[in-house]
Every structure is written in structure tokens, then in C-alpha cells.
Design goal:
The complex is a heterodimer. Chain A is mostly helical. Chain A has one domain. In chain B, helix 5 packs antiparallel against helix 6. Chain B is globular and about 75 Å long. Classes of the chains: A mainly alpha, B alpha/beta.
Chain lengths: 280, 334
């Protein structure tokens, strides 16, 4: 059979493949419209409960500073964390990989000339794009209603760093969850690991409370990748990371992507060698 | 030229041996016992380009593990194999573009989308030029009669229709080697026959190398001349399919029609009566005594019609697989 062999042809072919994975995954995602719209909208509920919780905490004095946060900053922080989590959360990714190892359906990726992690990455990009397309309305509404909590628009450098940090948080979230899924090559059942990861990331990413509240007891939290899943993008936007620190912050976040990418590659290569092709 | 060469291929698995009971489960948390299972033991064979070979054996014999080894899904414990000159478990893209594995699990298609979307994805994955893709797709959809189903979500297709779509996905890139692992499992008789006829036609036309595992002997008899029989991880027969009966069946079947409509009570001394439908009797006799039995029966009774036949392949294979003991290389026992 004729196949594309020259380098430009291969490049064109690789781009076409990614584009088609993206399109196909979008179509697949839209197959269950009702469930998808409902699950997208339901994610806004926790924000409402957080707003009420922090309103109660600051009820005596909204201008009071708790670990450097006023009430309004705290609400703004939560809204931005919600946005960051919309990028970095990867529902079902680790479970999906582990399930495909356990039931043998991973073989599709092993017998076809396709890179599983690359395939899953673009699949996830498609899921996110569809999610944003649905969620942009409610997100905009919530941000507009809560606009008074924000100190105002930061300058362009900060905005660019914020956007870059959001995109990198997507990559870090993907790589951590994919890696946990790949551990199934050794343990088959990784649901406990996923649970531990969810707990840790909720706590250590700044999703539950800003990391300023933790750093006194858990100083190492600065050096973990979890902070990039929620805290860092929000902190950048709110100016809690000084502008002169932004390049270092961006580089560190990027280094985590590189490190996790290498870790995923090594784990996948070793896992496949170990793979026994369960599931008949 | 050999398309597939396998030499002393072995694959062992370490399997956790769990004892019965809650206490044993608790003990198992601290100290586990493992046993080594030899899924494939010193398997060797050679398959020429364009051959279609049946791979037979009972459940757990090592057939699927061998196919997994040849597809590069599993790395062997020892031994060597090449398929089209490639070592399968190195999983080079250039090898993965040249073979397909179709299993009864039917998992190449996207469940919630019409099959045509999955086929488009295959076009990109295998880098099939557009004109060739369209020609191949038209050809395969015509042959498998699924043109009207292309726009229907896969989850809404019947098992037989999905299997035919899986075959299209597997053949779009024109593989040189096709591994078929129970391709007709669970299909109704009509779908089975359609898949069978398609495979026979396609293999003849394209001259691709095929290894087929199936528990349906009708599939095997319709499609393959050569069979490799594997049991407990070892090859116990490699040769013509018909030779399995010659080699392993210890009996032949005599169909007798008595002119007086009576079945003689002495008939059991020649062998086992399998069926009586007066005036016809079906008798199973030891292979070496066929001539002697016939001579005696003809001399002592009045016979209108008789025929001697081999036992059905399915029965011989079922008997072969059900026998305990270690495999031997010379006729009869396993």
C-alpha cells in the first residue's frame, strides 16, 4: 500500500491525524447532549457553596485580612480557581487508562501505528473544547455577576502569563492523571491511588483553600506540581506573584511538564514491556 | 518465502494463587504465593506468504497468547519470531502498518459514532491516500454488504454487523498479515456464513497470510487446509487439516442399511452403536478393524447399503482436547 514517506508528507499526515482525532472526539462528546449539558452546569454548584462559606467566615468584617486575603479577594480567588480547574481537571482519564489495561482494550493503541498518549491528549483537548463551548455562557455570567470582587484587569504581561499558566495547567493535569492510569500496568486496580490523588490535589493545589494558608505547616507545597493545577494561575491573575517572579514561575511550570512528560514516556515504555494483555 | 517464522517461543506468566476463604485472603495481604503458568511452550512453526492456517486448541491452550506475541502485544519469555521480517514485540510502526488483529471483542470502532468516522480515522492513522481509501472502502462495504449501515452509530448495530465493520477497519490499510482470533464468536448462522464467505474470497483475491483461531470447526473446514493444533502451550500437530482425523482418530464410522429392517443384537461386538434409525444403523468401529468388520457383517447379514466415513473433525478435535496427559508426537494420544 502507498503511504506518505517524505518528511513534509509525514508532518502533514500527523497534523491531519490530530485534527481528525479532535473532530471525531468532539462528535463523540456531543453524542450524549443531555448528560453533557447537565454535568457541565452542575459543576457551578460548588462555587455557590464556597461563596456562602467565605461570606460566613468574613461576616464580621469583609475588609479583615486572613493570610493576606480580604473577602472580595477570596471570592475572586475561588472563581479563578474554578476556571483553572476547568483546564486542569481530567475526569475519567486515569480510570479510563487503567480500565483499558485491565480489560485488554488498550491493545487498540498497541497494534495500530498510533501513539496512545498523544491520541488521548488530543481526545482530551476535544473534550475540553466542547466543555468550554457549553460552559462559556455560565462562566461569563458568573464572572460578570461577581465582577465587583475583582481588583480590575491586570496588565498584558500578567494576562499572557495567566493564559500560558492555564494552558500549562491543562498539560500538567493531563500528565499526572495519565501517569496514574499507566501505573495499572503494575497494579491493575488504581482506584485507591486516584482517590488519594484527588484528595491531595484538592488540598495541595489550592483548590480547597489558598496555599498561603498551608505554607506555614506544609512548606514543601511550594515544590510540588499540584500548585499549578489551581493556585498558580489564580495567584498570577490576582497579582499575588510579583511580576519579576513570573518568568521563574513560568519556567518552573514548564519544567514540570517536561519532567512529567518524560516520566509518562518511561512508564509507558516499561509498562508495555510488562503488559500481559489481560482480558483474553 | 516465509511470512511468519516462530522458533521455540515461550511465554510464562506469574499468577497469584489465592487459597479459599477469608483467612487465606488476610494472609494473602502479607504473604502471597505465585505459580508460573506456561502459556506457550517451545512453539515453533513456519507459515508461507499467502497461506491461511487454522490455529486450533481448547480454551487456555495458548492460541491467543501466540497471536498476542505475533502482534507484539506481549513480549516472550524466550524464543524468537519474525513476521514479515519484523520482530513483533519491537512494535515498529513499519510493522504495525502491515498487519491487523481482529478479535471477537470488536474494539477498533468508536462506540458512539457511525463506523465511517472510525474508518476516516484509520485512513489517517495508516496514511492511506484518499483515492485508495475510497476505492477500498467501496470494495469492502460492497463485499460485506454494509453500505446502508455506514451512517448508523456502532452501538446500534447488531453483533454481526459490528463484526463486519471491524473487518473493514482491519483491512482498509491492506495488511499483508491478518490475525483472526475467534472472528465469528457469538454470531448467528447467517452472519457466520457471510463472514466466512467474505474471508475465503478476500484471502483468495488478496493472497494475504492469515492465522485463524476458531472453535467453530465449520469456519476452519471452510477456510483452511492447514492446521496447527496447540494444547497446553505446545504444538501437537502441524499439517493438513484432514490429517488430524487420520492421525488422531482411532475409529471410523460405518453406516449400514439392513434389508430385513432388523438390527442384529450381535452388532455391538464390532463397535459402538452411535445411532439407530431403522433400517439404518450408525456404527463406530476401531480403525484397524474396519475391513474385518465389514467382511463379517456382509457375510452374516443382508445389507442394502453401506458407507465408511471418517469421524467428523469436530468430534475428533473435541476428543483430542478432552484427553488428559502430556502431548506426544506420535499418533493418537495426548
Amino acid at each position: 500500500m502507498r503511504v506518505a514517506t517524505s518528511t513534509p508528507d509525514r508532518l502533514r499526515s500527523a497534523v491531519r491525524l490530530k485534527w481528525l482525532i479532535l473532530k471525531t472526539a468532539i462528535e463523540e462528546r456531543l453524542a450524549y447532549r443531555g448528560d453533557f449539558v447537565f454535568s457541565t452546569l452542575i459543576r457551578f454548584l460548588p462555587v455557590v457553596t464556597q461563596v456562602f462559606l467565605w461570606r460566613a467566615i468574613f461576616s464580621n468584617d469583609a475588609e479583615k485580612l486572613i493570610r493576606g486575603f480580604r473577602y472580595s479577594e477570596m471570592i475572586a480567588y475561588y472563581l479563578l480557581v474554578m476556571l483553572a480547574r476547568a483546564f486542569s481537571s481530567m475526569p475519567g482519564l486515569a480510570n479510563g487508562i487503567a480500565g483499558s489495561v485491565a480489560d485488554g482494550s488498550i491493545r487498540k493503541y498497541l497494534i495500530q501505528p498510533v501513539d496512545m498518549l498523544d491520541h488521548l491528549f488530543w481526545h482530551r483537548v476535544a473534550h475540553k473544547l466542547v466543555y468550554y463551548a457549553i460552559a462559556i455562557g455560565p462562566f461569563s455570567l458568573v464572572f460578570w455577576l461577581c465582577r465587583s470582587y475583582f481588583p480590575g484587569w491586570p496588565d498584558w504581561t500578567v494576562i499572557w502569563c495567566f493564559v500560558a499558566s492555564l494552558l500549562m495547567s491543562f498539560a500538567i493535569g493531563f500528565l499526572i492523571e495519565a501517569w496514574i492510569g499507566l501505573i495499572a500496568f503494575w497494579f491493575l486496580e488504581v482506584s485507591s491511588l486516584i482517590f488519594i490523588y484527588m484528595m491531595l490535589s484538592y488540598f495541595l493545589s489550592g483548590h480547597m483553600i489558598p496555599l498561603e494558608y498551608l505554607s506555614e505547616w506544609l512548606p514543601f507545597v511550594e515544590y510540588l506540581p499540584f500548585r499549578y493545577l489551581a493556585y498558580t494561575p489564580a495567584a498570577i491573575f490576582l497579582g499575588r506573584i510579583p511580576e519579576h517572579r513570573l518568568p521563574v514561575e513560568m519556567m518552573t511550570q514548564f519544567s514540570w511538564i517536561v519532567g512529567l512528560f518524560v516520566l509518562n514516556r518511561i512508564t509507558f515504555a516499561r509498562g508495555v514491556r510488562r503488559y500481559s494483555s489481560f482480558g483474553g | 518465502m516465509a511470512a511468519i517464522e516462530v522458533q521455540d517461543l515461550c511465554r510464562q506468566y506469574r499468577v497469584y494463587r489465592k487459597r479459599e476463604g477469608v483467612l487465606a485472603s488476610i494472609v494473602g495481604l502479607f504473604r502471597r504465593e505465585y505459580e508460573i503458568v506456561e502459556a506457550v511452550r517451545n512453539v515453533s512453526f513456519r507459515i508461507e506468504e499467502g497461506e491461511m492456517v487454522a490455529f486450533l486448541g481448547p480454551n487456555g491452550a495458548g492460541k491467543t497468547t501466540t497471536l498476542k506475541l505475533l502482534s507484539g502485544l506481549v513480549v516472550p519469555t524466550s524464543g524468537q519470531a519474525t513476521v514479515l521480517g519484523h520482530i513483533p514485540w519491537q512494535r515498529e510502526d513499519s510493522y504495525r502498518r502491515r498487519f491487523s488483529l481482529v478479535t471477537g471483542q470488536k474494539e477498533q470502532l468508536w462506540w458512539d459514532l457511525p463506523a465511517q468516522e472510525s474508518f476516516r480515522l484509520h485512513r489517517e492513522i495508516y496514511r492511506i491516500p484518499d483515492d485508495e481509501y475510497r476505492r477500498r472502502l467501496d470494495e469492502l462495504t460492497d463485499l460485506l454488504e454494509v453500505g446502508r449501515l455506514m451512517a448508523r452509530p456502532v452501538r446500534e448495530l447488531s453483533l454481526g454487523e459490528r463484526m463486519r465493520m471491524e473487518l473493514i477497519a482491519a483491512l482498509l490499510h491492506r495488511p499483508d498479515v491478518l490475525f483472526l482470533d475467534e472472528p465469528t464468536i457469538g454470531l448467528d448462522v447467517v452472519s457466520q456464513r457471510r463472514v466466512q464467505e467474505f474471508l475465503r474470497y478476500y484471502q483468495k483475491e488478496q493472497k494475504i497470510t492469515v492465522i485463524l483461531t476458531s472453535h467453530y470447526m465449520k469456519d476452519v473446514e471452510a477456510l483452511c487446509e492447514r492446521a496447527i493444533v496447540i494444547n497446553r502451550g505446545q504444538v501437537v500437530h502441524d499439517g493438513q487439516l484432514n490429517a488430524i482425523v487420520d492421525r488422531f482418530s482411532q475409529h471410523k464410522i460405518l453406516d449400514l442399511q439392513f434389508s430385513d429392517g432388523q438390527v442384529p443384537s450381535t452388532l455391538t461386538r464390532y463397535g459402538q452403536i452411535l445411532e439407530t434409525r431403522l433400517p439404518r444403523v450408525r456404527l463406530q468401529v476401531p480403525r484397524q478393524q474396519v475391513s474385518e468388520c465389514l467382511a463379517t457383517i456382509l457375510a452374516e447379514h443382508s445389507i442394502d447399503d453401506l458407507s465408511v466415513s471418517e469421524r467428523p473433525l469436530e468430534d475428533v478435535i473435541a476428543e483430542l482436547f478432552s484427553q488428559p496427559g502430556e502431548p506426544t508426537d506420535h499418533g493418537g494420544s495426548l
